[in-house]
Amino acid sequence: QDGGQQVTNLVRHPRFKEYFETENYLEPLEIPSPINDRMRLQLHITRYGNNEHLMLVRDVTRIHQLEQMRKDFVANVSHEL
């Protein structure tokens, strides 16, 4: 059913469309999941062959949660000192 569709029709996020169309894939893109806004996804695109694209998607939600915990801890420790 989704075969043959443009990827920008399947991943409907303005930043993804901009990222895909600029073709500057040196850095990955992080966007909220379209299904769960508390989930963060990291997308990395690599070009190969005859204008083909390979897209890797990772769930980086836990990394963001741990980073926030670290920031909160540092803020609390700094406040106590």
UniProtKB/TrEMBL annotation:
GO annotation, cellular component aspect: plasma membrane
GO biological processes: cellular response to phosphate starvation
Enzyme Commission number: 2.7.13.3
Keyword Kinase: yes
Keyword Iron: no
Alphabetical list of Gene3D superfamilies matching this protein: 1.10.287.130
InterPro entries noted in UniProt: BphY/WalK/GraS-like (IPR050351)
Protein name per its UniProtKB record: histidine kinase
Species: Escherichia coli
Gene: phoR
